[in-house]
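To the wet lab folks,

You asked to see what we're planning to order before we commit. Fair enough. Below is the target structure as tokens, and below that is the sequence we designed to fit it. If anything looks off to you, flag it before the synthesis order goes out.
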């Protein structure tokens, strides 16, 4: 049994109409679920049956203010950023980081975009998109 391209960590056949899957580590939404049996060696997917991982959560950022010129490197920490070198998208306010990169499931790097006035006493909204495809 698979979720997207990842094999279930374990499967248990409960009945002819029910099987349990311990989901593999991963990220994403609307991921297809496929099952294969001895009688049906080709994986069968169920169009309306999809799986979604919990969205990523940001718990902290390394710097709370910087120059309006941008170019400041910040570390975004949290969880749910993916278990492998995943494509990420990080936004500061409404602007995408000039560069963003995945470090680990709990750490991302972002080079701040130009034009964002952010002060320590103003809430800075950080949005993280973790996906198996290009983020917008």
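Sequence we intend to order:
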């Amino acid at each position: 049994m698979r979720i997207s391209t990842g094999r279930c960590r374990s499967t248990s056949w409960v009945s002819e109409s029910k099987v349990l899957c311990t989901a593999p580590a991963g990220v994403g939404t609307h991921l297809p679920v496929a099952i294969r049996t001895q009688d049906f060696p080709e994986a069968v997917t169920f169009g309306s049956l999809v799986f979604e991982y919990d969205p990523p959560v940001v718990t902290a950022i390394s710097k709370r203010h910087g120059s309006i010129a941008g170019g400041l490197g910040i570390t975004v920490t949290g969880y749910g950023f993916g278990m492998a070198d995943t494509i990420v998208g990080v936004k500061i306010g409404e602007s995408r980081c000039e560069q963003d990169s995945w470090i680990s499931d709990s750490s991302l790097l972002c080079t701040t975009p130009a034009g964002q006035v952010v002060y320590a006493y103003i809430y800075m909204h950080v949005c993280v998109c973790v996906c198996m495809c290009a983020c917008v």
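Structural context that might help your review: The CA atoms of residues 62 and 75 lie 5 Å apart. The two ends are 30 Å apart (CA to CA).

Thanks,
Computational group
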